[in-house]
Design goal:
The chain contains 7 helices and 27 strands. It is an alpha+beta fold. The protein has a 4-stranded mixed β-sheet with strand order 5-12-11-8, with no helix packed on it. Strands 13-19-18-15 form a 4-stranded mixed β-sheet, with no helix packed on it. A 4-stranded antiparallel β-sheet has the order 20-22-25-24. Strand 16 and strand 17 form a beta hairpin. The longest helix is centred in the first third of the chain and has 76 residues, at 56-131.
Length: 469
């Protein structure tokens, strides 16, 4: 006979009973049954355990199963969360990498565009401007552009160097003059040469570099040519007790002894060192000139020649040695006076010396003064003064500069031959300048011209350089 297994306490009782005789639990419709009397209890889908499903053993077993199931579920959830986090990180890393890549690509594109634009402007911009000259020509009519047009003129010769040799000049009387000694490179530059005085009440300077003393004091003369500049300091000091130096044109150049001076005067602290010439020329080797004729004893003055291959000086006596130009300096009691000496000895200087020796045998008296007349009576003068600059060191020559403008102070000068009545003039380029019968030279246009004055068979060369204002 089949028995029913109680769901609560696990007691088996006959199936004819409606409730468990032990716990009183009402028999359910799904209660499990066992068959036979052999004690084997079988339940569909259920393994019989003494005490029933609610026994402690069954409860612990079910609890362990439930905990294991929950642990498995929790582990599965964690695994899914970890997988989701990894996917999210990979997605974020991919997004960041994409952004960086986009930025790099944009920067490279901008760099390529900039380089391409520079190449296009540099290599193709000039050709396009040259090609479209008719289109861009209105720019040339603007004032700012019209000023730059002359820089492209192939006839312009810019100045590349300027040297002012006279760094300091001392003038001891009103209206004393000094021709500034300077060089420009190249000599045929078309840049304007300008002279500016820092104080016209002390000294003025004209367009040819001639300095004129006006009043006592110190002024700076600035010479400019193109982008180059040089300066010369001019000191004007009047000394009442100093007499005008002897005119060298009326004094024998070979004289070596000065006028005797009072032996007590060198002790006078007010003695002023002054030379009787500031610039002169010796035309024969061995020719001499007594440079100093003042009140100071010559042996107490220190004499220096910057180039003794040109001229030497001893106690103020200057002796020509060879062709060239040098500066003679005299120093006394903190004072210094300067004179420039040019030596120009012609190549055939020995030939004339032999000819006069034979002439006195036939005409002893008339021929003696003749060799000295061209030197004493005939002398090339620029604006009435012996020129400071000779053309390439030639005797009887001068080198002057004028400016082609409407101002007569800078575009004209006067050339004369002292003691000459009949002067024949020739001009190799009348487009640059003109010269009339009286020796008045007028600048016309920028360029170079050579003027030749002939007097008694002797030629005097004047090299004229005309620049634009």
């Amino acid at each position: 006979m089949n028995k029913v297994i109680c769901d609560v306490c696990g007691t088996d009782y006959p199936e004819t009973a409606t409730q468990c005789p032990i716990c009183g639990c009402v028999r359910s419709g799904g209660a499990q049954t066992s068959s036979g009397d052999n004690g084997e209890k079988v339940a569909s889908g259920y393994t019989y355990v003494k005490g029933g499903r609610f026994s402690k053993a069954n409860v612990r077993k079910r609890l362990k199963a439930t905990q294991a199931q929950q642990a498995a579920q929790l582990q599965a959830e964690r695994r899914r969360d970890d997988e989701d986090d990894e996917d999210l990180e990979e997605e974020e890393i991919g997004t960041s990498s994409n952004k960086a890549l986009i930025v790099i690509v944009i920067v490279l594109l901008l760099a390529i565009i900039a380089v391409s634009s520079y190449i296009a402007i540099t290599f193709f911009g000039g050709s396009l401007r040259n090609k479209d000259k008719d289109y861009t020509s209105p720019v040339v009519t603007r004032p700012s552009t019209s000023e730059t047009v002359p820089t492209s003129d192939p006839d312009l010769i810019p100045c590349v160097g300027l040297e002012v040799h006279d760094t300091e000049v001392k003038l001891t009387g009103a209206d004393k003059v000094w021709d500034l000694f300077y060089d420009v490179q190249p000599v045929d530059t078309t840049d304007n040469i300008t002279f500016i005085s820092s104080d016209d009440t002390v000294a003025t300077v004209d367009a040819n570099g001639r300095i004129t003393a006006v009043g006592e004091g110190e002024a700076t003369i600035t010479v400019r040519c193109g982008s180059f500049e040089g300066v010369c300091t001019v000191v004007c000091e009047w000394e009442q007790h100093v007499t005008d130096p002897t005119d060298p044109t009326q004094t024998d150049p070979t004289q070596t002894d000065p006028t005797e001076t009072d032996p007590t005067e060198p002790e006078d602290p007010e003695l002023v060192l002054e030379l009787n010439r500031q610039d002169f020329t010796l035309s024969t080797k061995g020719e001499s000139w007594q440079l100093y004729k003042g009140d100071i004893e010559r042996d107490k003055i220190t004499w220096i020649s910057d180039d003794e291959s040109v001229a030497t000086v001893t106690d103020g006596l200057v002796v020509a040695v060879g062709n060239g130009r040098t500066r003679i300096r005299a120093q006394y009691d903190g004072q210094e006076a300067v004179c420039w000496v040019s030596v120009s000895v012609p190549e055939d200087v020995t030939e004339p010396t032999t000819e006069p020796t034979t002439e006195p045998t036939t005409e002893p008296e008339p021929t003696e003064p003749e060799p000295t007349e061209p030197v004493v009576e005939h002398e090339l003068l620029i604006n009435g003064v012996v020129p400071s600059y000779q053309y390439e060191g030639l005797e009887n020559s001068a080198d002057i500069s004028l400016t082609a403008s409407d101002d007569a102070n800078v575009n004209q000068c006067s050339i004369s031959i002292s003691g000459a009545e009949d002067v024949q003039w020739s001009n190799d380029d009348e487009a640059v300048c003109s010269v009339d019968a009286d020796g008045r030279v007028t600048a016309k246009a920028a360029g170079d011209a050579r003027l030749t004055a002939t007097v008694d068979g002797v030629e005097y060369l004047v090299y004229v350089r005309v620049t634009n204002p």
